[in-house]
Amino acid sequence: MNDELFDLSGKVALITGGSRGLGRQMALAFARRGADVAVVSRKLDQCQAVAAEIEALGRRALPYSCHVGRWDELATMVDAVYGHFGKVDILVNNAGLSPLYPSLDQVSEDLFDKVIAINLKGPFRLMGLIAPRMKAQGSGAIINISSTAAMKPSPGSQPYGAAKAGLNCITGAYAHAYGPEVRVNCIMAGPFLTDISKAWDMEAFGKRAATMALKRGGQPDEVVGAALYFASGASSFTTGSVLAVDGGWLGSGD
């Protein structure tokens, strides 16, 4: 990898859902390339653990507990990050939630609202808070983490898929609203073997994976290449893009 092209020295990244899974991998990858990182999630102790890993790499870190689905908490969190670092150059909307439910007709209003709040309302609000500041400072990169559930029916995660489809949509809207200074792109993630996958029926997943081009789920660190591309100058002419990082999941059999 060309270190100069993907260099993030002097940058500050804010990553929601940054304490585990894809978020943790992106946080560490950004730190290794020179970025300071605000690690945000609901559990402060987990944020602190990742912050310690970042500091061990010689970078600054801010662990911060915040519920991304709560509109009023986000402005306070953003102000705290700006107060600590003075700026945000990279925003990664990674926090996600996809609870299990027995059937579509048994999805409760509470479950539906929670899924929309975390996966769509929170990112919408965070971009609204941060994109204007990025534009004022003259540059910025926003990365939304979506899901292939937005494009392909997934009976066990349809509220989640609907929210992620909305996230794909507002990616383009924010790219147009805050360009050319701010680039806004989206990683549409396929099946990654993170903590979430522990709840999967792995026998059923194995049969589905056999129809994928790569015939397996992704490892969390395999999101890093796409994240570095969108966060860095390597993607200087890319905005409003939705990139599937899914091992060929979208092209697989039902």
Structure characterization notes:
- The protein has 254 residues and is of the alpha/beta class.
- The chain is built from seven helices and seven strands; from the N terminus they run βαβαβαβαβαβααβ.
- Helix 3 runs parallel beside helix 4 and helix 4 packs parallel to helix 5.
Overall shape: globular
- Helix/strand class: alpha/beta
Q: Please tell me the overall pLDDT.
A: 92
Percent range of helical residues: 40-55%
Number of domains: 1
The counted number of beta strands is 7
Radius of gyration: 17 Å
Q: In angstroms, what separates the terminal alpha carbons? A: 35 Å
Query: How many strands, what sense, and barrel or not for the largest sheet?
Result: 7 strands, parallel
Q: Any idea of the CATH class?
A: Alpha Beta
CATH homology superfamily: NAD(P)-binding Rossmann-like Domain
Q: How are the strands ordered across the major sheet?
A: 3-2-1-4-5-6-7
Q: Uncertain spans, ≥5 residues at pLDDT below 50? A: none
CATH topology: Rossmann fold
Number of helices: 7
CATH architecture: 3-Layer(aba) Sandwich
Q: Per DSSP, what share of the residues sits in E-state strands of 2 or more residues?
A: 15-25%
The helix/strand order is EHEHEHEHEHEHHE
